[in-house]
Every structure is written in C-alpha cells, then in structure tokens.
Amino acid sequence: MTQPARIVVVGSLNMDLVVKAPRIALEGETIKGGTFSTMPGGKGANQAVAASRLGAHVHMVGCVGDDGFGRELLDNLHKANVNTDYVTTVSGSSSGVAMIAVSESGENSIVIAPGANDRMAPEYVRQAESIIREADVVLIQLEIPMETVEEAVVIANRHQVPVILNPAPARSLPEALLKQIDILTPNETEGKLIVTGRAEGDIDVEEIIHDLKSKGVRQVVMTLGGEGVAYSAGEAVQRLKAYTVDVMDTTGAGDSFNAGLGVYLAEGGSLEEAVRFAQKVAALSVTGFGAQASFPSRTEVEGFQ
C-alpha cells in the first residue's frame, strides 16, 4: 500500500447515553440499571473513527447541534484524526442523542433522537463534492434524511467512487437507489425489510441476497451476528463463520465492520479478504464497553487470530 485509504463518511453524529442493565427491559417495565456513561456515537461518526483507527485518512460529512454535545462530538473526531471540515454546526438545533441500554450478555436496545442529523440537507453533501471526488470509498448509513443519502450516492457515482451503503436503521429503499450501490451491508432484518417490505418472514439468507442483486445492487455483504457473514461472490453466496470472543457490548459492531470493509477494499483488497478483515475488526470491537472506545487499531486487527 503506497498511501492510506481515503474514506469519506456521510452520516450521523450522536451522543450515546448508555446504561448498563442486567437485561433489556420489557415494554412497560422499569428495572434497576448500573453505571451510566456518555459516549460519542452515531453510525456515521462510529464508522469514521473506526476507519481512522485502521489507518485511513477520513473526512466526516454530517451535522451537530450548537450545544455542548455538539462541541464534544467535534472534539472527539479531532482526537481520532478525523477531518471535520464538512461537519456543520446547525444553529438552534440540539445534537443527536441515542439512549442505549446494554445487558449483561452484551446485547443492546437503542432509541435515537436525531436532532441535527435530521437537518442534514443535500446541500451539505454538495459542498463536500471535492473530497468525495478524491475518495477511494464513500460510506453511508440511514440516520440522515433519505434525500441526502441519495445525493451522496449520485455524487459518488458521478465520480466513479465506490459506495458502501449500510441500510441501518432498517427501512425500505427505492430500487433506483439500490441500482447505484456498489456494496450493500444489511443485517438479516434489514435485508428482509428491503426485499419484502417486512422485517419478519420466512425467507432465507441466500434468497435475500439474490433478490437484492436482482434489484440492481452490485454486491451484498450480510452480517448475521454470531452466525458470521454471508456475501455474494458472483452468482454464488459464500459464508464465513464468526470469530469466537468474549462479548461485553455489541454497540457499534456493525459500524466497525463497515469501516473495516471499506478500508480494506480502498486499499485494493478482494471482497473476501475485506470481509475477513472486517470480521476481525467487529469481533475485537465487542470485547470492550462502548462503541468508539472499543474500536481496535490496525496493529490489533492484524495480530488477531
């Protein structure tokens, strides 16, 4: 590799308000939790920080509010060596917040108040066209308005920059958008929703991947939690088993996976190599508490077996 991967992340920035709990509360139930923490998060910022830790040069495109959380989120990106020239502070808006409960088994329950993320208009992406044009990969998620996602994809396509779209949180997507995506990275629930319009249903992983490709997506990489990953390899679907680790907190695991995938592909790796690398990144990320705080360095990933 002659130079670091150039990654542009278009997406959300949130402050995560995290409570440890013995388990996830049922509807209408109150349970006693443990420690409380505030931690920088948001799918976009998570992917940006994770990619930077892996050695990439990263630009973040997003919005924060003109509040204390907004200043903290920007400071955190600076400390992670993420360029914030295209992170806009929106006057009169609060920053995005995520309320997260983490169980003793490491599973989580998340509710998001989007704040400034909902104010991220397509014009903010157009202002960043010069850096998108020079990128090796653009990473996008769905915690910002759909018209802004679509604008980012159009600009990346215009300059023939590969797009990785992480379709989270789960929602249906127009086929016109799917036809412009180089790699779609749903989990099983997200994949089902895009294909059938419902998050549940009796449809297997291979069928979901084939259906997504028939809608125009060039490649599909589906994360399956503890079952590993399934991805399209030509007409076939390949599966890779998950690494076995002691899970402390799964928050941000999908974001770290997407970052690892994007960085390795930007460096010229094959899809299979990139998926294996991304699996290592995600496996290491769940062994610590909090999203960004537990993202591994490049050295840690390369030393992980």
TrEMBL record:
Keywords: ATP-binding, Carbohydrate metabolism, Cytoplasm, Kinase, Magnesium, Metal-binding, Nucleotide-binding, Potassium, Transferase. Gene3D superfamilies: 3.40.1190.20. Its EC number is 2.7.1.15. Pathway: Carbohydrate metabolism; D-ribose degradation; D-ribose 5-phosphate from beta-D-ribopyranose: step 2/2. The keyword Cytoplasm applies. K(+) binds at residues 249, 251, 285, 288, 290, 294. The active site is at 255 (proton acceptor). Requires a divalent cation, most likely magnesium in vivo, as an electrophilic catalyst to aid phosphoryl group transfer. It is the chelate of the metal and the nucleotide that is the actual substrate. It is found in: Cytoplasm. Its cofactor is Mg(2+). One of its GO terms (cellular component) is cytosol. It catalyses: D-ribose + ATP = D-ribose 5-phosphate + ADP + H(+). Signal peptide: none annotated. Substrate binds at residues 14-16, 42-46, 143, 255. Residues 6-297 form the Carbohydrate kinase PfkB domain. Activated by a monovalent cation that binds near, but not in, the active site. The most likely occupant of the site in vivo is potassium. Ion binding induces a conformational change that may alter substrate affinity. One of its GO terms (biological process) is D-ribose catabolic process. ATP binds at residues 187, 223-228, 254-255. Its main location: cytoplasm. GO terms for molecular function: ATP binding; metal ion binding; ribokinase activity. Homodimer. NCBIfam families: D_ribokin_bact. Belongs to the carbohydrate kinase PfkB family. Ribokinase subfamily. Catalyzes the phosphorylation of ribose at O-5 in a reaction requiring ATP and magnesium. The resulting D-ribose-5-phosphate can then be used either for sythesis of nucleotides, histidine, and tryptophan, or as a component of the pentose phosphate pathway. This is Ribokinase.
